[in-house]
Amino acid sequence: GSGSRIMDQLSQNYADEGSLPDIILLDIAYQPGFDAWEFLDQLRSLYPRLAKPIDVYILSATKYPADLQHLEKYDFVKAFIMKPITKEALQKIIRHREMSVDRFAFIEAYN
What we know:
By secondary structure, the protein is of the alpha/beta class. 37% of the residues lie in helices and 18% in strands. The protein has a four-stranded parallel β-sheet with strand order 1-2-3-4, with helices on one face.
């Protein structure tokens, strides 16, 4: 699946800052051939060797308390974002990054 391709790319380029993304937007909804939780576990193993930090933002159309609790154990997961993604939600991500807030955020779009 695409998750393994991304992990392969991160594993191959972990020492090359210019090849690493600044952020990853990760949808935790079930997708055939891709397990978002497995991806997060693999990224956690690779993370200490990365040339630069990568902030992960979780996307989901559903808000399960168990998922939110599970996500808090990944230090690199910066926020949980409710879909659909709006321009306002993306602006909140940018502000969140600019403020270098370390705590886990919950971002919801308000119409």
